[in-house]
């Protein structure tokens, strides 16, 4: 697993899927608020005039010379919940991100599970 200080340096680098197909560019790192460890990436994808940020878990990710390889296929990542390039993930939308990747989600009412760093 990458340390958060290291992964921040990869902002703007390519994110590729498990088979090496380019998905988009790394935009931001989201940490688990309970552990303060990197948990999700947002990936900038889409046409230049219609870009969006999609979420992908960092579990199983590997860093290459000029890319971050995630452990999920491009099709699954592309259909992940997304936000606008200047938007933010609302607390009420967090569970949908976890559900998309079939990951367990637990958060106390009115608490956030993910925070952008």
Automatic annotation (TrEMBL):
<protein>
    <submittedName>
        <fullName>PRC-barrel domain containing protein</fullName>
    </submittedName>
</protein>
<feature type="domain" description="PRC-barrel">
    <location>
        <begin position="6"/>
        <end position="76"/>
    </location>
</feature>
<dbReference type="InterPro" id="IPR014747">
    <property type="entry name" value="Bac_photo_RC_H_C"/>
</dbReference>
<dbReference type="GO" id="GO:0019684">
    <property type="term" value="P:photosynthesis, light reaction"/>
</dbReference>
<dbReference type="InterPro" id="IPR027275">
    <property type="entry name" value="PRC-brl_dom"/>
</dbReference>
<dbReference type="Pfam" id="PF05239">
    <property type="entry name" value="PRC"/>
</dbReference>
<dbReference type="InterPro" id="IPR011033">
    <property type="entry name" value="PRC_barrel-like_sf"/>
</dbReference>
<dbReference type="GO" id="GO:0030077">
    <property type="term" value="C:plasma membrane light-harvesting complex"/>
</dbReference>
């Amino acid at each position: 697993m990458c340390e958060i200080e290291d992964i921040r340096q990869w902002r703007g680098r390519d994110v590729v899927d498990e088979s090496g197909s380019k998905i988009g560019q790394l935009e931001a790192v989201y940490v688990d608020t309970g552990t303060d460890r990197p948990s999700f990436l947002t990936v900038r994808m889409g046409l230049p005039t219609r870009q969006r940020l999609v979420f992908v878990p960092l579990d199983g990710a590997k860093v290459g010379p000029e890319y971050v390889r995630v452990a999920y296929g491009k099709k699954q990542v592309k259909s992940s919940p997304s936000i606008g390039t200047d938007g933010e993930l609302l607390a009420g939308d967090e569970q949908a991100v976890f559900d998309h990747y079939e990951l367990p989600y637990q958060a106390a009412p009115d608490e956030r599970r993910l925070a952008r760093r």
